[in-house]
Design goal:
By secondary structure, this protein is mainly alpha-helical. Helices cover about 60% and strands about 5% of the residues. A hairpin with a 4-residue loop joins β1 and β2. The protein is globular and about 60 Å long. The two termini are about 20 Å apart.
């Protein structure tokens, strides 16, 4: 099953791609260097095959552009006071390492495969850096507004890069283990929002990240912030608020009434599916999480089964 990009995120990225950036002015102001500008223009608004060839020819330069190195800071750090440049670079960085996402579900595992990546050599090169997430993590706390583009775009890039790290080596590593809780913390603010579009972005990124044992354990460790809001979404879909939990648990008529009227709380079928998928992914750690996970699983079934019956 293909995972379509969330509409809000796709629209935001397209708007940023279309914005004119006064690059030469940024060079004159010392925001970016002339070398930075040459590298940006070499991959910006060009054919995918040209973009791939350019990055593969000088992978080290593009790693330095995004992460910094001996020759200077990351462009994200040097341009930190220029929101337009930071937003543009976050979208460009995601374009370079991302592809079309294909979700394949098997009886014993879940695999997320990236296809038609613009610059497939870049993500592995970034991950070879001693601090591959360092310039990006502070941007997650750029604002407390869940609609702020910078942390939202940052989370999209980080989710893709960490997923690439998990694909390359499913073993735990200190950089990813340190980055994941911070990314989970930001995504939790989106799932707690009242905007179903932002919720869906967060849940899809959760799903992309919950691919290894360590990632699932860290997610579970933060379950008050990560998992509880997902169960709340199921409650909302079933038309149940916290004040009606006793009715839901007792098998009363509130679930049937809610499903007959359609999904409640503005929860769409796509968001519902993604929430159930993320919760299902945690089941792979049932042996270590045990009965605590069973409690959440039972809660999910109590809200979700009538909804699924209505869908069928």
């Amino acid at each position: 099953m293909s995972l379509d990009p969330p509409t809000y995120l796709n629209s935001l990225q397209n708007n940023i791609r279309a914005r004119p950036i006064p690059w030469e002015g940024a060079v004159r102001a010392g925001t970016i260097t002339d070398s930075d500008l040459k590298r940006i223009k070499a991959v910006d608004k060009v054919r995918k095959d040209q973009r791939r060839q350019t990055v593969e020819t000088d992978t080290d330069a593009y790693r330095s552009l995004l992460l910094g190195g001996d020759q200077g800071k990351s462009v994200l750090e040097s341009a930190s006071k220029r929101a337009d440049v930071v937003q543009y670079m976050l979208v460009l960085a995601s374009d370079l390492i991302n592809g079309n996402l294909l979700l394949q579900t098997f009886p014993d595992r879940r695999r997320l495969t990236m296809l038609t990546v613009d610059a497939p050599a870049l993500a592995p090169a970034l991950l070879e850096h001693p601090s591959p997430y360092k310039p990006f993590l502070p941007l997650l706390s750029n604002s407390t507004n869940p609609e702020d583009p910078i942390p939202l775009l940052t989370s999209t890039f980080l989710a893709s890069l960490i997923a690439a790290s998990q694909t390359g080596s499913p073993k735990s590593n200190p950089q990813t283990d340190e980055a994941l809780p911070k990314l989970y913390g930001y995504l939790a603010t989106l799932t707690k929002s009242q905007d179903s579009g932002l919720q869906d972005i967060a849940v899809q990124e959760y799903s992309a990240l919950l691919r290894t044992k360590k990632a699932r354990e860290l997610f579970w460790k933060q379950r008050q912030d990560t998992l509880n809001p997902l169960v709340d979404i199921l409650r909302a879909a079933a038309g149940a608020g916290r004040d009606s939990d006793s009715t839901m648990w007792s098998g009363g008529n509130s679930i049937r009434s809610a499903t007959e009227a359609g999904l409640g709380g503005g929860v769409g079928l796509q968001l519902l599916y993604h929430v159930l998928l993320a919760i299902w992914q945690l089941s792979f750690e049932g042996s270590s999480i045990g009965k605590d996970l069973e409690k959440y699983a039972s809660s999910s079934k109590a809200f979700a089964l009538p909804l699924l019956e209505q869908i069928n």
